[in-house]
Amino acid sequence: MGKVKVLAIVPDRCSQCRRCELYCSFSRFKIHNILLAGIHSARVHVDGLLVEPSICIQCGRCMEECPVLGAMKRDPKLEVIKVTDKCNGCGQCIPACPFGLITINPDTRKAVKCDCCDGSPECVKHCPYHALVYVDADKTIELIVATRIISQR
Amino acid sequence: MKENWNGFVGNILRIDLTSKKIVKSSLDRKTARSFLGGNGYSAKILWDELRPGIDPLGPENKFIISTGPLTGTLCPGSDSWIACFKSPLTNCWGETRSGGGFGPELKRAGVDLVILEGISERPVYIWIHDGEAEIKPAGHLWGSLIPKTERTLRSEDGGIEAKVVSIGPAGENLVRFASVMSDGRAAGRCGGGAVLGSKKVKAIMVRGRGGISVAEPEAFISVVGKVEEGQSKLKVCDAFGSGTASWLPFYDKQGVIPTKNGASNCWEGKGEEFYKQLKEKYFIGSRACESCTMGCGQYSKVKEGKWTTPVTKGPEYETVAAFGHYILNDDVEALIHANYLCNIYGMDTISCGATIAFAMECYEKGWINEKDTDGIELTWGNMDAVKALIEKIARRDGFGKLLGEGTKRAAEKIGGEAPEIAVHVKGLEIPAHDPRENYGGKSWAVQYGTASRGGCHIHPQEPTLLIGYYEKLGFKESDWPGITQPLKPEGKGKIVKWTQDYGNAAECMGVCKFHSFTSPALTPKEYAAMLSAATGWNIGSEGLFKIGERVSNLQRCFNVREGIRRKDDYLPKRLCQIPAFGPYSQVPETAITKEDLDAMLDEYYEARGWEKETGVPSSQKLQELGLSEEAKQLSKYLS
User: What is the domain-level CATH number for residue A73?
Assistant: First the structure.
């Protein structure tokens, strides 16, 4: 069995262009709607520079709070939590998410969250600044520390 | 029933500040098909609704904020919002655009266009959230600087993700080149800030959570993907990514930067030195506008010393030139500080630097003295004087009151020979693309002369787009006579017509024109494909140019109605003379004679189908563009 990959962000590279959010919603719902994105690249604009990108770390709190059996499922291969057809859009997962990344799609009445696009995340493929990466879990720390050192030279 | 719109979101908000009435209506499908959005749709509204000759700072002027059908989509660089109004600086067509996130946010709030009309008695701000609008009191914000305004509004109402456009003290005090600021970015030119100030509108804040749909998602995303991939391989994208200031070394060598109030076209080696210092010491990071793949916006900071400056957006190329070359200042820290002051007071850096440069020359020549300048010693490169002046201009205090009128009016007031050294077209100060340079060359003379908003390089578009990239755009050298001879007048009229139409099409679509420079990844063909897929209308690249041409013509009609004719399309004397110093002072071909200008304008009007003697669009041309009604109104006005 291969190593588990995770979605990670290198904050110093993020330029707040929000293309990840647009791609996330567009690839799933064919509409530009950042509310329906499972990622937020540009949560904070304090006089321009501070960024606090939010990505889903698949912590599972949404699943813990979910009252409907089987509405959320952990994919054992990708280690991601997926929303299934059983979801009834009750919305209890919304406050459970520590990053505020879950919404209910008003059209489908189902929760929307990051599922890493079945192992090839659209946001990573299309990030113009290479700020988003999908890497082996044990590589993320090295990567982020390395870019921090470079950018603080 | 809700109308079905793709690309557009389909709504106009009309806000009457006098009666405090807000009316929401649908976009007109026919107008949108002919003009798209942006400065095209706005041109139609202003043509229909403004009476010629009105006071730009009076209640009759309107301020329209618009977006285009591609704004807020995945089309690279689709981040525009553009404001259109009658300019208090030029008394003719005024438009000013910026990127950031305001345009996309406005569309997410379900609004394509906001029309502000009338005048409020007391200071107000407009709060637009998810399609609803409120007029709220802004007395407590009146007088505050831009960063404080944005912070206060977000903490009071909007929340951290709300987008704000606002004016600073300069706009409130009706400085004629006051800018409209948003997230550190400036919609600087033409004095939009003063129009908002006259209406007593301190800010417009918007928050939206809606979506923007496209008609053919598969087709749309496939073009976007191709463009992205093409762009990622282009060197020009990296260059933009280093900030516009990275052009300084090259432009200085080519003689692109007017120096010492336009006496010369370069300040040897300074461009390179400025950029080196900025890059090594002062730039601390960059931020992209929404949906941009290049991310040109640099931020700078001066940590300590006399010119200590907090984190601020810029300085961009134009600002470095305006507070460097224009006024002979070589202190980069002082330059960054001047940029910061203009940003927080809400003033256009180009016009501000150019007006101060003009005043410095008047001071040197003895036409004004310390009595006029409130004791300020206005010598070249004196940055203490510049700092004092910026504050005086923003507050319209003493000598600043005169300079806050802009170069043209200040020159008329000073009188004598002063108008001879005033570097502007139609009242708009010339940016840092000298027509005596060796790259775009004399095409700038036509662009400055004929651009709807006056002496501007990028509205509608830089002629160097075609000159530098004609092969990548699929043309041969033989298609464009004179394209490789920048200092010859031949062919410049046609080149400028093409770039202007392309530029106006981009403005109407709501995209950033820097991305036009990423051909062959993004050419008119790709734009047309994305636009067609987004709107569901079949618009080829020819159709796109037709729209651009229609907008260019309607804006010209607007200007003709305000009294603009051929005589107003000439360059200021200063920029026609051989540079007084520097390497280009040895190149006699840099001179632009009356004959050159006449020949180029003739060629331009002919390419446009306008009357050569007057520069008025012919009825035939207007009818051909589907502007028959406008042609009738124009001829009625002219008779």
Answer: 3.30.70.20
Residue B285's pLDDT is 86
Average pLDDT over residues B102-118: 96
State whether B213 and A31 contact (CB < 8 Å).
yes
Range of the domain at A46: 5-151
Q: State how far the Cα of B591 lies from the Cα of B128, in Å rounded to an integer.
A: 51
Q: Nearest to residue B587, comparing CAs of B424, B457, B455, B434?
A: B434
CB contact under 8 A, A48 and B183: yes
* Smallest Cα distance from A1 to chain B, Å: 33
Determine the Cα–Cα distance for residues B132 and B128; give it in Å rounded to an integer. Answer: 6
* Contacts B289 to A, Cβ<8 Å: 17
SS (H, E, C) B457-470: CCCCCCCHHHHHHC
Query: Would you call A45 and B211 a contact, using CB atoms and an 8 Å cutoff?
Result: no
**Percentages helix, strand, coil for chain A, rounded to the nearest 5?**
35, 20, 50
The angle that helices B332-345 and B146-153 make with each other, rounded to 10 degrees, is 50
Nearest by CB to A31, which of B161, B211, B284?
B211
Burial class (CB in 10 A: 0-12, 13-18, 19+), A92: middle
Are B76 and B228 in contact by the 8 Å Cβ rule? The answer is yes
Class of domain B11-207 (CATH, top level): alpha beta
The Cα–Cα gap between B223 and B529 comes to 7
If contacts are CB pairs under 8 Å, which of residues 121-150 in chain A contact chain B?
126, 128-129
CATH class (in words) of the domain with range B443-520+540-638: mainly alpha
The interface predicted TM-score of the complex, written ipTM, equals: 0.91
A114 vs A27: CA distance, rounded Å: 12
Place of tokens 């107003």: B568
B214 touches chain A (CB under 8 A): yes
For residues B324 and B151, give the distance between their C-alpha atoms in angstroms, rounded to a whole number: 31
Across the interface, whether the CB atoms of A17 and B311 are under 8 A apart is answered no
Residue A122 Rama label (left phi>0; alpha psi -120 to 50; beta): alpha
Nearest partner of B35 among B113, B106, B152, B99, judged by Cα: B113
Tens of pLDDT, residue by residue over B136-191, are 999 999 999 999 999 999 888 888 889 999 999 999 999 999 999 998 899 999 99
Specify the number of domains making up chain A: 1
Domain B244-420, classified CATH 1.10.569.10, yes or no: yes
Give the closest of B160, B221, B290 to A26, CB-based.
B221
Tell me if B450 sits within 8 A of B499, measured CB to CB. no
The DSSP bridge pattern shows strands B113-117 and B11-16 to be parallel
> What is the average per-residue pLDDT within B387-395?
96
Count the Cβ atoms, other than its own, within 10 Å of residue B3.
Answer: 10
Domain spans, chain B: 11-207, 244-420, 443-520+540-638
Given CB atoms, is B232 within the 8 Å cutoff of chain A? yes
Beta bridge partners of B86: B93
